[in-house]
Amino acid sequence: MTKLNVLHWHLVDSQSSPMEYFRNPIFLITQYGAYDKTKVYKQERIKELVAYANFKGVRIIPEFDQPAHVAAGWDFKESENLTVCKDMQPWYDYCNEPPCGQLNPVNEQTYAILEQIYIELFDMFNFDDFHFGGTDISFKCWNSSSAVTSYMTQREDLSSLDEAAFLTLWGEFQENTSNALRNVISKKVGKILWSSRVTNGSTLDALPPDEYKIQFGGDASDTADPQLKTLFDKGYKIIFSNADAWRMDCGFGSWIEGNDKCNDYAGWPRVYENDPYKIAELHGVEMNEETKKQILGGEASLLGHQVDEESIDWKLFPRAAALAERLWSNPTEKWYKAERRILWQRLRNVRRGLAADVLQPEWCLYNGGQCYGRGQGSPIPSKSNNWWSSTSISEIAQRLEDESKAEKAESRKPHPYNAPLQQN
Question: Would you place residue 370 in the very low, low, confident or very high pLDDT band (cuts 50, 70, 90)?
Answer without folding.
Answer: confident
